[in-house]
Specification:
Strands 1, 2, 3, 4, 5 and 6 form a 6-stranded mixed β-sheet that branches. The chain is built from 12 helices and 6 strands. The protein is α/β, with parallel strands linked by helices. This is Cytokine-like nuclear factor N-PAC.
């Protein structure tokens, strides 16, 4: 927290202390368990919530977790908004995230200046849970696409084709994007410094598949991609970038 304190921030030593000092508190943690522990655990957010205080959950979690957190906060008189973010660590650093919000519309409006600082745009999607659903769908698509890119690059290598030429062709076609270019460059350079942790995209695939199960909707592409990420995790790639899923194909 030192850098923030140097800029004038105050230090809260527990979640409850932070919430008690702030009108609006933002949370962004790794997974559903961490999000619930932060709110419901010892010296957690619930211990500091008072009527009128706002809590904004920016973690990518499942709709069931959001419903539980929302009820816990609002039962104490607090105001709740979910606002997961689409984007990478670099986009976060640059304030260029895409924010998906749902829940209390008045909290969304009160957070407008904060969202403008964090992101390039934001969407309000209605009742709490909708943003979690949309975020999981987005990350399911992204994770499955990343696994397909890695599969293509390894197949090129296995059949004697130039991986660099494949990338050059991709970047001149209708699939050209910053995402494709950056992730392929990661692979070609063997640079898997995390911009979006592999373990987190696998978590999102797992949650998306579970959401599909609850809706009785098939997710065969996501299920196949999830198995490849699980293989990558078994190869100790969890804390590398999601593009390290490539290594699941070469072992």
């Amino acid at each position: 927290c030192d850098l923030f304190i140097q800029e004038g921030a105050r230090l809260g030593r527990t979640p409850a202390e932070v919430v008690s000092m702030c009108d609006i508190t933002f949370s962004c943690v790794s997974d559903p368990k961490a999000a619930k522990d932060l709110v419901l655990g010892p010296s957690g957010v619930l211990q500091g919530i008072r009527p009128g205080k706002c809590y904004v959950e920016m973690s990518t979690v499942d709709p069931v977790t959001i419903a539980e957190l929302s009820q816990s906060i609002t039962t104490r008189g607090g105001r709740f908004l979910e606002a997961p973010v689409a984007g990478s660590q670099q986009l976060s650093n640059d304030g260029l995230l895409v924010i998906l919000a749902a829940g209390d519309r008045s909290v969304y409006e009160d957070c407008s200046s904060c969202f403008q600082a964090m992101g390039k745009t934001s969407f309000f999607l209605g009742e709490a849970g909708n943003a979690a659903k949309m975020m999981l769908i987005l990350n399911m698509v992204q994770g499955s696409f990343m696994a397909t890119i890695a599969e293509g690059l390894t197949l090129a290598q296995a059949t004697g084709q130039s991986q660099q030429t494949l990338l050059d062709i991709l970047c001149q076609g209708h699939m050209a994007s910053t995402f494709v270019d950056q992730k392929c460059q990661n692979i070609l350079q063997g640079n898997f410094k995390p911009d979006y942790y592999l373990k987190h995209i696998q978590k999102d695939l797992r949650l998306a598949i579970s959401m599909g199960d609850m809706a009785n909707h098939p997710t065969p592409m996501a299920a196949a991609a999830n198995e490849v990420y699980k293989r990558a995790k078994a190869l100790d790639q969890s804390d590398n970038d999601m593009s390290a899923v490539y290594r699941a194909y070469i072992h």
